[in-house]
């Protein structure tokens, strides 16, 4: 089985990012299985410490995944600090961390009209900087995301079809284990 | 007295960012006093909660400051997650938070050759996005910062002179309370 | 009279950017007059030459303006090369060109859904880098701009009202000559 | 033979970018041949016209290359307008131009201390936006480039060795025609 690790950038219980990630992981192509990383238990990054077992577990999840799917909201024209904090923990040593060479896909969401496109720009640059391989597809941005949830389920059929096509391309291009 | 609030982006005990911030705050112009914000006690941002008294204190510090000085390292081509997390807490409501109209200065540091210039680009964009007024001076980047500390004291005279000139301009341009 | 110089980033005859700029300059506050810079006659930037009289004229227009209003489309996630080329000509010497200290406003337009927000990010960074003072307002992005033209006239009343409010703030904050 | 097309971002006769590009193309791995694109003859981009034979030639060069190597200076915290203008001509239709899927490498140069790292960030974002495949290697930035030329020849051995290693990786990863 090909393994996808999903990472949502928000901690809110009713987060649109989490809902979109659930929808993506529920519709993976045949032969691909998805799991979700939890970033809330990670402490603040501080290189004086190793971060404890939660950090080790997060790094191991990334290492064992064939590809990563990020779904992130936009906070203040960038990604949430809490998502960047999780990335920081798994980013050492520079240029040779578990992110190096790791295939990644990005989806951004917002409550506003622009779908988190600014946050996506920053995340792409951060991932490139760690030598991750960001899937070169048309950017997936989801504006007015909260209005597209029904009882916590993201169910915008047109957007899901657009996402699924890119996820299929992404999964098909993953190196076979 | 004009009040400057200093915010360092790293939590390390021996952080170069903290050392540079100490040097800046120790050399403020006459009539200007500096204090330091602590970002390590802030929880992970989650809009389901208000973050407790540490968040309230952090927001109050920003609100009562006449200007902010950020000194940040670069982690993975952007600012540390923990610094972005602190900013996220103080950023609501959008376009009308304590950052709106707040004069800000940015200094970036790195152990490498480029002085954190990439992190500075992201921080500037984030601050602009909250309608803060980023001081329009030549970017202050400090490469090989750890080598410029002596027993925890940043003492590169040429860089300090360059910084002090900009800090003086920044303080002189602050609106009088 | 306060003088505003408008700069459109596209050369197309039927450009939405030009149409939006015409609408902005036709609605300036009382006591403010607007003129338009032409960037098409400028040669490709090459510091081996001075660019000739068209470059001298462009620089003089910027120097004598109290504020600049850019209206730009987005080409390939950034500003048009032709707009950047014009900026390059007027950008010397570094940090001390006619852009240093010059108040600027940015409006971006696109045929798509995101209104040129990516181009706006690059233009803001470029202007900041020359020490221009970018007006710290909420970003003005105009999606589906071509659909909002009627016989070459931009007439979306809601967007024009939003723009006019920011233009008024911008003009009111300009240093008096 | 694998074909590399080199594109320099400056028009100056004594350009450091051109000198670095010459050095790169003179040291390509066995089985790889390099040619240079000329961007100075291209007119200003204007979608009302097709740009003429120079544009057609430039697009054909990109189409027939197995990979592209950009060497760019930094003008005002971004790439030169003249380089962006060339890219704009070859960028249509969006997401399906000759850049889509094209392997690209970036080298930036500057006269100052930061090696054009800001320009590199913008170029990477622009190329990603056209679905080009930017080689995920450590960024190659060359500070104080003019001082590293000897009679127009770039001959900094340490930097050339660093570049050649990445160029070899890049060429080895190119899809075989």
Structure report:
- The structure is a homotetramer of 177-residue chains.
- Chain A has 177 residues and is an alpha/beta fold.
- Chain A has a single domain, classed as Rossmann fold (3-Layer(aba) Sandwich).
- Chain A is 35% helix and 20% strand.
- In chain A, strands 1, 2, 3, 4, 5 and 6 form a six-stranded parallel sheet that branches.
- The relative contact order of chain A is 0.20.
- The mean pLDDT of chain A is 97.
- Chains in contact: A-B, A-C, A-D, B-C, B-D, C-D.
- At the A-B interface, helix 3 and helix 4 of A face helix 3 and helix 4 of B.
Q: Uncertain regions of chain A: pLDDT < 50 for 5+ in a row? A: none
Number of strands of chain A: 8
Give the domain tally of chain A: 1
**Overall SS class of chain A:** alpha/beta
**Quaternary state of the chains:** homotetramer
Label the overall shape of chain A.
Answer: globular
Radius of gyration of chain A: 15 Å
- N- and C-termini, Cα separation of chain A: 9 Å
Average pLDDT confidence of chain A is 97
**Helicity level of chain A, as a percent range?**
25-40%
Strand content of chain A: 15-25%
CATH topology of chain A: Rossmann fold
Q: What is the CATH domain class of chain A? A: Alpha Beta
- Give the largest chain-chain interface (CB within 8 Å): A-B, 33 and 32 residues
CATH architectural designation of chain A: 3-Layer(aba) Sandwich
Would you list the SSEs of chain A in sequence order as H and E? EHEHEHEHEEEEH
Q: CATH superfamily of chain A, please? A: Flavodoxin domain
What is the helix tally of chain A?
A: 5
Q: What profile does the largest beta sheet of chain A have?
A: 6 strands, parallel
